[in-house]
Design a protein that fits this description.
DHBP synthase; binds magnesium ion; binds threonylcarbamoyladenylate; four-stranded parallel beta sheet; 315 residues; twelve-stranded mixed beta sheet; alpha/beta
Length: 315
């Protein structure tokens, strides 16, 4: 299939409203969207990404009407979190309505809801005739796409359209909070930090890692993620290693001597914005080992540590 590249939200929405698969920019990462009313397009998302079918998709909305189409119940805490953080880099897990097919939620009775703040995303989603199911626009297991070029690299010829925008401002996926239990639980760290959530909903806690034999509360978190082909090694700040072979470094501090490619980031926000793009660049250049400095666990540092740890697996 020929992938159409456009800068027009109208054209992209037209393709979506005919049952097409459209990648679009958001402030976190690029999404790969299908209208939830198009079961074949929803199936197409899993095919295009090579995504396991038991991993649910986040549903994106632009307004209250689309929100009410997708959910059946909004708890008090959820309402307060929405008032404070929508639109933005936050996904809330809520009870789904009958309009959201089980193919979107992988059989769950809950649905992840996100309302992006990105103006192009907002325009595109407003023009959709239904809420839009969208995972990150990368091949399954690869780092999320934070630019339209990264979407091309993974999905050219496999999807109908790429709505071209600038590189994602945040660069890491949204914070996910489950609001279906007694108290909100943060399932995935992101740009909205735990402390900020707690200012609005004080009972919010962070989910611990799933124990052996237990199903994780966020099904996607059991799969390897965000991983370049190179081996990722997590370094505590100041930790010294002797790089071997073609190696690279990304972090705030000094790169180890002898790395072939080094990216020093001015602050944590820059680090978050650049991490996934850097992983992809390393792969294109045939780098074998990427050293990533682990930042402090505050603000977006928590999300960065999480992604680096996952990419590193046991290293
Ligand atoms: O920033 C983001 O969240 C991006 C943009 C495109 O919105 N999307 C994104 O989607 O990162 P994805 O599919 O790559 O990651 C979604 C995560 C998965 O780990 C999935 O298991 C989890 O959200 N998830 C989705 N629906 C869920 C639900 N009902 N309950 C628990 N976890 C859910
Ligand atoms: Mg993803």
């Amino acid at each position: 299939m020929q992938t159409r590249i456009t800068e027009s939200p109208e054209e992209a929405a037209l393709i979506l409203n005919r049952g097409g698969l459209v990648a679009f920019p958001t402030e976190t990462v690029y999404g790969l969207g299908a209208g939830i009313n198009f079961p074949e397009a929803v199936e197409g998302i899993f095919r295009a990404k090579g995504r396991p079918s038991d991993n649910p998709l986040i549903v994106h909305v632009a307004n209250v009407e689309q929100l009410e189409t997708a959910v059946s119940e909004i708890s008090r805490d959820a309402r307060r979190l929405m008032e404070r953080f929508f639109p933005g880099p936050l996904t809330l897990v809520l009870e789904k309505s009958g309009r959201v097919p089980y193919s979107v939620t992988a059989g769950l009775d809950t649905v992840g809801i996100r309302c992006p703040a990105h103006p192009v995303a907002h325009e595109f989603l407003s023009l959709s005739r239904c809420p839009v199911a969208a995972p990150s626009a990368n091949r399954s297991g690869r780092p999320s796409a934070t630019s339209w070029e990264a979407v091309m690299e993974d999905l050219d010829g496999r999807i109908d359209c790429i709505l071209k925008g600038e590189a994602s401002r945040i660069g890491l996926e949204s914070t996910i909070v489950d609001c279906t239990g007694e108290a909100p639980v943060m399932l995935r760290a992101g740009a909205v930090g735990l402390e900020e959530l707690q200012q609005v909903a004080p009972r919010t806690t962070a989910a611990g890692p799933a124990r052996e034999g237990e199903t994780p509360r966020s099904p996607g978190l059991k799969y390897p993620h965000y991983a370049p082909r190179a081996t990722v090694v997590a370094l505590e700040a100041g930790e010294k290693r002797k790089p071997q072979g073609a190696s690279a470094y990304i972090g705030i501090g000094q790169a180890p001597d002898g790395t072939a490619l080094a990216r020093r980031c001015g602050n944590l926000d820059d680090y978050a914005r650049e991490l996934f793009g850097f992983f992809r660049e390393c792969d294109r250049r045939g780098i074998r080992t990427i050293y990533c400095e682990l930042p402090p666990e505050t603000g977006i540092g928590r999300a960065l540590r999480d992604r680096i740890r996952r990419a590193a697996g046991g290293h």
